[in-house]
Amino acid sequence: MNDETMGQEDAAQDAEACAEALESLDRISLDDVAFDDSSVDVQDEPEAEAQSDDQDADDVEPAEDEADHEDTECEADDQPESDTSEETILLDSLPAEDSLTRELPGLGSAPAVDETIAMGDIPLPSVPSAREAEVRHRKMSPKRRNLMVAGVVAVALVAGGAGYAAWNGYQQEQAAAVAANAHTMMSVQIGAHAAGLDCSTGSKIPVQVSGQDSDGSSVSETLYVDEHGRGIKLLPGDYTLSIAASPIAADGTIYTVPTTKTQVTVKSDGQDLSAQATFKLKVPSADTVTDDQIDAAAKYAEEGGASSAAAAKVLQQAAIARRDAAVNAVSAQKAQASRDADARHKATDLYQLDIPVEWYGKVETWQNGSTLCIYLGDDANTPLVTLVAVRDGETFTPDDGDTVLGTVSLGNGYTVYASGPVYPHVVPQTINGRTQNPVSTYPMDTAIELVELTTGNRYTYSQIKNDLVGKDGNADAATKLETDYLAQILMPSIKAQD
Where are the alpha helices (DSSP H) in 271-308? Predict the structure, then answer.
């Protein structure tokens, strides 16, 4: 079989397949598809005009011939090429007179229309009128109409497919972003307050984290934050936060660990959780810090809170030294307080008492039987108060110039009387020369000290001089001031002797 015969058989098969496709398109119902009459090719306009003119002349047969001619032409277009050996004629190889100009069919003796397309100067098609579109619709063959409908359907399907593909792509991108975030470590910040802590020189704060991440995996780990609460990185999820142990400051400070636990949800990178999770670490008295607290703090410092195990060891030693120094200081204070208490404690054959703390170190005492005198410094001639035990029912008369400042019943048949000068009144009067027989004269610093000791510094010397001492020399206000103060600091300590 030669090449020409094979080419003819292939062309016949192609023509048969094309016919089957056209028959399938004929089955498409035009009622199911919105058809736009204006989509007809504008090249049919001359034919519509020619047919319109012929119809106006009541000439029907030419229109039928033209329709037959168009059907024939459509069928001719559907025929495959019969000879694959034909030569392809290039446009630039044609002679000048063999241009693309041809006579349009169906126009009879109408002048030839030059359809030569000028490259780079393609004219825009005109839009047909409603009447022209209606004429074309009536004269259009069913096959051609079905072909156009199929084209519209194909374009719609392509456009719809492209839109769905774009939306599906967007959805996939969003899902991929969410999935990526679910597996990305997020930096979060909590609230942390520890006075004097600088994590650049001390250790960081260990935070116990437990919960579940976005993958459903359980989480239980210790993370470390600085004094600003920064340093935690977690996958998105729900977690419980608590402080695992105390950090150690550079000076050895150990903090009280809060027992609170806080629930948080990690959603995004850089999230500030300080409003939900804030931990305050207080500084206890250094002498109360235990070995267990120091050991726990050192353990977490070594595991990640400090820059190295050696640095953690140095901080641990600092904590121990600080605690031991505080314990020793407290012990020394207690020992001194005990010695001071012994020195302040006084006893006679009938009663005992404690020198007020405010007076201790500033006064001295002498005693004779059941009489005890408390005087200023080393000046026995300047007594603050004199205590005398008197049997119940007997009368007590103070020394000249003294006033009874208070009494205490011992319950054993005796009463202790406290008497002495009313220094808030006597001193200003003496300084001003208003008293005719002053008890004595005092230097200003002594006068101020006497007033302070007998009033507890509740008034300054100037206030006592100007406010409590009147020109008439009335001592009532000054006396009440002194008696009230002695009733607070001295009289309650007077007890019967065991």
Answer: 291-300
- For Cα atoms 426, 431, 432, give the angle at the middle one, nearest 5 degrees: 100
Burial of 489 (0-12, 13-18, 19+ CB in 10 A): middle
Of 347, 348, 354, 373, the closest CA to residue 491 belongs to 354
Q: Which residues of the chain have pLDDT under 50?
A: 1, 25, 28-121, 435-439, 470-472
pLDDT of residue 423: 82
Q: Determine the residue type at 110.
A: A
The phi, psi pair for 479, rounded to 5°, reads -65, -45
**Prediction pTM value:** 0.52
- The single-letter code of the amino acid at 30 is L
Measured in residues, the chain has a length of 498
Q: What is the pLDDT of residues 80-124, one digit of tens each?
A: 444 444 444 444 444 444 444 444 444 444 444 444 444 444 555
Rounded to whole angstroms, the Cα distance separating 70 from 428 reads 140
Q: State how beta strands 262-266 and 237-243 pair.
A: antiparallel
As a whole number of angstroms, the distance between CA 19 and CA 17 comes to: 5
Phi, psi of 119 (to 5 degrees): -60, 130
How many CB atoms neighbour CB 76 within 10 A?
8
Question: What backbone torsions phi and psi does residue 268 show, to the nearest 5 degrees?
Answer: -145, 165
Helix (H, G, I), strand (E, B) or coil at 24: helix
Tell me what pLDDT residue 452 has: 85
Where do we find the tokens 């001390």?
Answer: 202
Distance CA 445, CA 405 (A): 24
